[in-house]
Amino acid sequence: MAILQIILNGLTYGALLFVVASGFTLIFGLARVVNLSHGAFYMFGGYVGYSVCVWAQHLMQTRNSGLAWTAGVLAAGLAGALLALVLSWLLKTVKGELPQTLLTLGLAIMVGDICLWIWGGLPVTLAVPRALKSPVEFFGMMYPAYRLFIIVIAVAIAALLYFLLFWSQFGRLIRAGVDNREMVSALGVNIDRLFLSIFLLGGFLTGIAGAIGGSYLALSPGTGFQILTVALFVVIIGGLGSLLGSGVGALIVGLVDSFGRVYFSQFAIFLLSATVIAILGFRAQGLFGRKE
Amino acid sequence: METDSSLLAEQKARLGAERKRFAALLAALLLAAACLPFFTSIFQTQLLTGALILGITAMSFALLAGFGGMISMAQMAFYGMASYAMAITSKTWGWPPLASAGFAVACSIALAAVFGLIAVRAAGVYFLIMTLALLQIFYGVAMQWNSVTGGYNGIAGIPRPTLFGFSLGDPTTLFYVALATTAAVYLLLRRMLHSPFGLIVQGIRDNPVRMAALGVRVQRHRWLTLVISGAVAGVAGVLGTFHYGVVNPEVAGLSTSVLVVLAALIGGVDRLFTPVLGAVVVSILVSVVSYMMQQLFGTSRYWTIIGAIFVIVVILRESYARRGWSVRGLLASGRGTRAKSLAKD
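^ inputs. structure came back:
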């Protein structure tokens, strides 16, 4: 396999992982909750997106319609945000990071089982828009246009998040809230609403990632655990709560996974684990994490 | 170490007074449990054996969470390590059962020891994340390393050995082996927790900075606790291969880990023995819920209910704790080896 293709595979996977991990790291950064149901958010969003996409295609009597796909992606985002809303209600019932984290574990199990109940065990895939379906020529090789499109989406989301967090008043309040919740609250800011909006944003991002990823990696009952695994690897490498870290971490995990699959096949997971361990040995808090 | 020695003396005095009553209680409980197979069906005996295996794993969780202050999601990875080592050595390589059991536990210990070198540097939520990552790496390896682990299907038909003329394939015999192992693990851990080492571990849970200032090597003690807990989970893993006869990547899945944590939470992690009771409750619960779902809805999907129960248990535990009932587990009350806060600020 051409080296360029392996790199591109890694980059596209990394781009998807960035969208997944940014939602994870946003929620962690603010609420200090390790959302173990994150993979379930992705899976539930993807499945809802799939159903809406199929339904829209049925309404419009076409296949591979861009409109139906977009509707599916947006519905997936809303489904993710809905789960985030449920999670934020649940989290209010207990105090402390560890009990809250355990709570998300219960939610993960429930959502995973409900997905299996509704959509069954067979893998499903969203129908990619016709315009993006065919491969395009890219530096002298044919590459699926849709995968390149994922990179575009991820870069757009990264730019939006960057603007939102570092250039807007909303972002200033969020960052202040991460550092000192009580003080921001004392300054007259409704910190609960701020937290809720970050939860919804994180859930929305994870949901659309489910639909975007579900268009080229199939959705199946095991998806939730897989996605939680890679999201965790990304944020461990990049550092919890850091947006830049999740970007860099996503690229590293994407590329290592892509090379590992080609050159080591059975042992790809060892390569990934070794990378995680090497980086942790070098910097315990991750590449861009802050020391506690 | 002034305060330490006075605490130790106090603890010893309390123990001396309670020792006889404890021995009587334990003997009565064991005797009652030993009589159970005469009244239960084979299915129920197997259910209880499964509960005891889950209970040993839950004890290893409680040792870390309640006494060491480290919430670990990796217990099923240590369990799975022993199970796979047992399956591979006894089935694929044809080792004698005792040798492979010993090797399997050694494998769990080795995994915990190596993993611990990295993990004990993290605390709180970060420790939890590291342990979850280990669980997932283990799951991934078991899934992908087809030639050794059998991939998705795992390894089936693990031989059940005959020890001293008793076949472990017989459910009743296996129940007694599991019961004896549970009691032995409990007594050993209890002894350990009452030793100076155990008190130091609990001191670290309450105030690591103060313990470090007293000259205790905090990370080394946390590492040792993790290794001991890994060994205990490994013992459960060995019993698990006798009980189930198969091992597959699902041992390291999220849902099996949920059962371990649920058992420990229902029982209470501030005592050693209550997680075993919690495991019995959980095993019966799973069996009843799956039966009811089958009868009422004709479906084998019951994890939604288990997940909901898990969420409710976490919330209940918290609201009890907030009302100042000091009930850290739903079943926990009375006496027993108990994680008492040693540091009074």
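The first strand of chain A starts at residue 135 and ends at 138. Residues 3 and 259 of chain A are 9 Å apart (CA to CA).
thumbs up if we can close this ticket
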